[in-house]
Amino acid sequence: MISIFPFMNKQKSFFVVILAALLHSGCGDSAESYYKKGNAYAKKQNYDSAIAAYEKAVALKHDFVSAYNNMGMAWSNKGDYERAVRNYSRAIVLSRDYAEAYNNRGMAYNKMQDYDKAIEDFEKAAELKSDYTEAYDNLKIAHGNKQAEAYNRIGSSYFAKQDYNMAIESYEKAIKINPDYVEAYYNMGEVYRAGNDEAKAIKSYEKAVELDHDYVQAYDRLGWIYLFRQNYAKAADYFMKASELGKLSYENLSKAMEASNEDAYIYNAMGEAYFSGNDYAKAAKCYEKAIKLNPDYVKAHINMGSVHKAKLDYKEAMKYYEKAIGLDSGEALAYHNIGKVYFAEKNYDKAIEYYTQAIELAPEEASAYYSMGHVYEALGDKEEELKFTEKADELWKR
Questions:
Q1: Which residues lie below 8 Å from residue 40, measured CB to CB, with a gap of 6+?
Q2: Are 331 and 325 in contact (CB under 8 A)?
C-alpha cells in the first residue's frame, strides 16, 4: 500500500534510528549502566542500592553473568548467604567455567558451615584457573573448618557422656583450627557451666557473643549466671539483649525482676521490654514500680512519659518529661521527647525550640536532627529540611 503521508513515514523512521542510537550509546538506562551503578554503590558499601541496580541490570539482560556474581557478593556482604548462593549459582549456570563465581559460592557455603559444598566449589575454581591463589587458600580454610567441625562434634559427644575434660580438649582443638568458631566457644561455655566453673563459662559465652552479636542462647546463659550471682543489673542487660533479638519471651527477665523486688533498674528494664512489644499497660506498671523505688530515676520518668505519648495522652507525657528535666536539666532525650509532643500537636515553633535544646545538649545524636528535619518538612522549608536530614545521615554513618 502506498502511504498518503510519505514524509511522515520517513520522519518516524528517522526518530526510531536516532532513539536506537541513543540507547546503544548508553544514554538510556541500559543493563550495562545499571551494572556500573551497582558496582559504584558496592564500592561505597551501599549494598541495598547495589542490589537494586544489579536486579535492574539482569531484568534487562537475563544472561548478565557478572551482574549475578556481583549481586551475590553484595548479598554476602549483607550476611544473607542463601541469597548470595542463589545468585552465584545463576552465574554458574550461565557460565560453567566462571572460576570466580565458584570461589565466591564456596565462601558463602563456608560461612553457612556447609564445608563439603565449599570444598567442592573451591576445588572446581582451582581446576578452572590453575593460578587461582585465593581458591587454593580458601580450600585450605574449608578443609580446616571441616576438621574443626569434626572436633566440635567429638566434644559434644564427650559432653553428653559427662566427660568434661575430653570435651574441653576437643573444643579447644576446634577453636585452634578455627579461632572464629562461635559454636565451639558456646559449647565450651556449656561444659564449664555444667562443671560449675562460672568464670570460664562467662568468658566462653562472652567470646561467642563477641563473634556473633545475635547469639541469643549465649546472652540467655550469661543472664542466668549473673542472676544466680545476684548481679541483677547485668542479668537484666543480657536478658534484655536476648529479648530485643526477638527470640525469647520476657519470662527470664521477669524472673530477674522477681529475684530483686527492690531493684528499680530491673523494673525499668522490664518496662522497656514490654514497651518494645507494644504492651503499654504492663510497661507502665513496671515504670511506676521503678519510680516508686527510686523517685529520682530520670530514665524511668522519660520512659513513663513515652508510654503516655504512645497512648496519645500528651498532657500526662509532658508531666513525666518535665519531671525528668527537673531531675536532670542536661537530659537531652527529655527535651527531644517534649519536642515530639509539640510536633504531634502541630506546635512547630515549640517543637523547634525543644529540638534545638536537645541538639545543643547532645550534638552527636542523630535522631534530634531527623526530628528537626521533619518539622521543616511540615513547614514546607525544603532547604532547612535537607540541612538537618543530611546532618543526621552524616552522624548515623559514623
A1: none
A2: yes
CA distance 287 to 297: 10
Centroid of chain to Cα 100: 28
Q: Which residues contact 26 (CB under 8 A, 6 or more apart)?
A: 32, 33
Q: Quick one: cell of 20?
A: 536506537
| 316 in Cβ contact with 290 (< 8 Å) | no
The position carrying cell 567455567 is 97
Say which residue, 202 or 15, is predicted with more confidence. Answer: 202
**What distance lies between CA 286 and its chain's CA centroid?**
28
Amino acid at 314: Y
Q: What are the Cα distances from residue 203, in Å, to 39, 63, 206, 382?
A: 41, 50, 5, 52
Amino acid found at 90: R
Q: Is the pLDDT of residue 9 over 70?
A: no
Confidence (pLDDT) at 211: 94
Using a 10 angstrom Cβ sphere, with 0-12 exposed, 13-18 middle and 19 or more buried, the burial of residue 7 is exposed
Q: Which residues contact 220 (CB under 8 A, 6 or more apart)?
A: 238, 239, 242, 248, 252
What Cα–Cα distance (Å) separates residue 56 from each residue in 32, 33, 51, 66, 88?
A: 10, 10, 9, 13, 17
Nearest to 352 by CA among 331, 330, 369: 369
The whole-model pTM stands at 0.47
Residue 70's pLDDT band, with cuts at 50, 70 and 90, is: very high
At residue 269, what are phi and psi to the nearest 5 degrees?
-65, -40
Query: Quick one: what percent of the chain has pLDDT higher than 70?
Result: 86
pLDDT at 256: 52
What cell was used for 133? 591463589
Tens-place pLDDT, residues 117-151: 888 888 888 788 888 888 788 778 788 878 888 88
Q: What is the DSSP letter of 398?
A: -
CB 132 within 8 Å of CB 103: yes
